[in-house]
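Entry 12.
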Amino acid sequence: MYKKNHKFRNFLLILFFIFILLGIAYYIYTTYNKIEVTPEYDIKRTDSTINVENVDKVLQNSQSIADILQTVSQSVVGISRIKSHSNSIFSSTGSINELGLGTGIIVSNNGYILSNCHVTGEKLSTCYITLANGYTYEGSVVWCDSDLDLSITKIDATNLTYATIGNSANIKSGETVYAIGNPIGYEFRRTITSGIISATNRTIQIEENNTVSYMTDLIQTDASINPGNSGGPLILPNGDVIGINTVKITSAEGIGFAVPINVVKPVIEEFVTKNKFDEPFLGICAYDKEVIPYLATSPNFSSGIYVVHIDEKGPAISSGIQTGDIITSIDGNIINNMVELKEYIYTKLPGDTVSISVSRGYITRTFNIVLTKK
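Predicted 3D structure (tokens):
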């Protein structure tokens, strides 16, 4: 009896050790053969380039540019100085010469349209605006700056599709841009062309009616700009309008220019919010150093803008500022081109006082000027 119990106890001990050995073997097997997700395939890692959030963005971006440009195109309009006998200026009857066809961009849902002065005409002129839906409206030019070649026209319409105004201050050469316009005639309305920003702060000389003037601080682009594109938008891939196309160099291919949008943003805001813009007037014309090579005189300055004309009807005429002074700042803001000066002045109201610092030889002086209404 004792031998039987002894044998049974030995059998249990052997069985116990067998179970222990099997457990150890199972632990070793599962530990060294564990399947792990490596970091490069871990879609939950926020620092991984392949994750669920980024995949969603890639899928959105893959189809967004075409969609965005299509949306912006709906805010592009045709502009004519002559009323067409058809319902639309895009009718096949008549030519671009008869209609004076140009382009504009809707900048508010209540009918304000941005374009060029040479497209719409001067302030209080009448022009005719054809929308993407084919309807034509009579428009009244409510603002125009011929030096900038920019104008704003108002039509009696609401709930319009309008473009997003971007920021032209931070753009760089090499960025992709798109131009939308109505080149040549109705067959090619709302043509989209692409290119890059070739350069910023460009200056060109304009000769018209035996007079010479200069357009400064322009955006140069190689996106195709043709007759009829004038007044159309220059757009970033996200749909933001950063410039208004104005001229093309006809003696060379792939050289077009646009006016940076920031200079007119304060004007647009005033019209959209108040339905009016009381334009403040300083009465100074000045050139930056990019224009100096065109001039007979060669003033030497590295920053600021060179005063070439003071309007006899403007408030600056009695301030003490003289032709030949170098304007370096206004209200403490550094100024390096005329567009920057205008952009700042447009944020003010008639009656506001501005402080302008000038360099005159080795002397620096500051003049306070009360702006008047233009």
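Annotation: The CA atoms of residues 232 and 329 lie 32 Å apart. Helices lie at 2-32, 52-73, 96-99, 117-120, 265-274, 338-345.
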